[in-house]
Amino acid sequence: MNPFLFRLFREGEAKVHELNYLFWECTTRCNFHCRHCGSDCSVQSREKDMPLEDFLKVLDTIPQNHRPKEFTVVLTGGEPLLRPDIVEAGREIWRRGFGWGMVTNGWKYDEQMHSRLMGAGMGALTVSLDGLEASHDWMRGVKGSYERVLKAISIFAREPRLNSDVVTCVNKRNLGELQQIYDILSGLGVKQWRLFTIIPIGRAASDADMHLSNTEFVSLMEFIKAKREAGGAMNVTFSCEGYLGRYEEKVRATRYFCRAGINIASVLIDGRICACPNIDRDRFSQGSIYADNFYEVWNSRFNEFRNRSWARTGRCADCVQWRNCLGGGMHNWHGQGGEVLNCHYAKTI
């Protein structure tokens, strides 16, 4: 799309701000110890799981005539499958007329769980594969996690009723394994493979192995570009992290657009209302479901997401690509400093 027309489209989307994607951080308990975790989850989380009825009250604040046909609630964590009521939760969301999906590490995803979740109306699923066996287990901090996630993928990948994808956090350890991962996923029947890179927050902040050099980042772009140009049954794409300059629309289907706070919201484990769960929750939370009407917050707040003029500071102040980038993904603005953590455009020059 022409950049000027795309900017007009983006401005229109921000003005209308139709909510169609809602994350629920339903637990912060997790059976893994991932190197890149931004939430620092653990099996015994300091936060109790949010009661299902509390979240259902959130959905009930959204008027029937303001619910687009394609509306997805995504259960995330932590590891959602650690909740004993996870099937009931999905069923109740579905009963209210919302599509729903889940982000899981795959450890507890077997044939029986697949059948129960599909029976509860699950329509979307995302699972991570972060390298070949040694690299994946290193990344996830649990021996045997690679074997378990491949079994999970083999179960759901060929399910025709499910919109599923596999995501990979690309780092120094697995960058050279991407072709082999591609072959494995293709062989399992995966239709969507989404790659992303890490920002320096959480456990990954000081982990040099997690961060690509500019040269390595460009090689990742070239890999994705080549796969997209070659076609094939599996769609390979880069995530919506930030503006990519010369790689725009070559590694994704559309131009860069951070939809956090424009179409995407989240309810965090403690009830705070935010956009994507990996955005700085202390800096950008908009209210609480325990003090505010969720849908009123959605309509009346989120100004920092819909008007990004405040982000034209630091390295962004005089950037010639500002109108296309708007300071990159909102998850790149952690802390109170006036500087974006990552500039993907600068990596590709």
What does this structure look like?
By secondary structure, this protein is α/β, with parallel strands linked by helices. It is 32% helix and 14% strand. It is built from 13 helices and ten strands. The chain has helices at residues 3-16, 52-60, 86-95, 111-119, 133-140, 145-156, 178-187, 214-230, 281-284, 294-300, 303-306, 322-325, 344-348, and strands spanning 21-25, 72-76, 99-104, 122-128, 163-169, 192-196, 235-238, 264-267, 272-274, 287-288. It has a ten-stranded mixed sheet. Helix 8 links the parallel strand 6 (192-196) and strand 7 (235-238). The protein is globular, with a radius of gyration of 19 Å. 39% of the residues are buried. The model has no long low-confidence stretch (mean pLDDT 94).
How far from one another are the termini?
21 Å
- For the secondary structure, the number of strands is 10
Output the helix-strand order.
HEHEHEHEHHEHEHEEEHEHHHH
Tell me, rounded to a whole number, the average pLDDT: 94
Indicate the overall shape. Answer: globular
Low-confidence sequence ranges: none
Residue share in β-strands: 5-15%
Strand order within the widest beta sheet? 7-6-5-4-3-2-1-8-9-10
How many individual helices? Answer: 13
Spatial extent as radius of gyration? 19 Å
| Major β-sheet annotation | 10 strands, mixed
**Helical coverage, percent range:** 25-40%
What structural category characterises the helix and strand content?
alpha/beta
